[in-house]
Design brief:
The structure is a single chain. By secondary structure, the chain is α/β, with parallel strands linked by helices. It has one domain (about 25-140): Rossmann fold (3-Layer(aba) Sandwich). The chain has five helices and five strands; from the N terminus they run βαβαβαβαβα. The protein has helices at about 30-45, 55-65, 85-95, 110-120, 130-150; strands spanning about 25-30, 50-55, 70-75, 100-105, 125. It has a five-stranded parallel beta sheet with strand order 2-1-3-4-5, sandwiched between helices. It is globular.
Length: about 160
């Protein structure tokens, strides 16, 4: 039987107001089936996370403007409104968000697409896995890296 950690959200108890219990992963993908597959793949991962989803570049911008900064942003290369990776460029040009890791998923990661994604500021470009098992393996690897192993800088002081 596969261990399936719960996906939880919220904040820690007294004395830890505003400190998330688990890291928030923001997924920007227009495909409902892709969002469901990523959710299920994350549940197969090592630890819980708070998955939030948006379906367009406009929703991505609204979420980032009105909500707590996520620990990791996953952006579909074909996200509506993300022409020439403008959504990624917008995140990386914002002083309050530029430290947030952005991973771009592409159907086929061509050299030109890779160059455009990295030029826009993406931290990683990954070809979308074809099978669910490959997606689970990928999610385990890169969430373990970005959410557990990597030392990320603190949120910028906005005061």
């Amino acid at each position: 039987m596969t261990r399936r950690p719960r996906t939880v959200s919220g904040t820690a108890g007294p004395g830890f107001i505003g400190v998330p219990l688990v890291p928030t992963v923001l997924l920007a993908d227009a495909s409902a089936s892709a969002r469901a597959m990523v959710r299920d793949a994350l549940l197969e991962g090592v630890g819980p996370c708070d998955l939030r989803t948006v379906t367009s570049a406009d929703e991505l911008h609204d979420y980032l403007r009105t909500s707590r900064r996520p620990a990791l942003v996953l952006v579909d290369a074909d996200l509506p409104g993300n022409d020439d990776f403008d959504a990624v460029r917008s995140i990386k040009s914002n002083p309050n968000l530029r430290r947030t890791p952005v991973v771009v998923f592409a159907r086929s990661a061509t050299p030109a697409q890779a160059a455009a994604a990295y030029d826009a500021g993406a931290n990683t470009l990954i070809a979308k896995p074809v099978t669910f098992l490959a997606l689970v393996k990928l999610m385990k690897i890169f969430t373990a890296y970005w959410l557990d192993a990597a030392t990320l800088p603190p949120e910028p002081d906005t005061s």
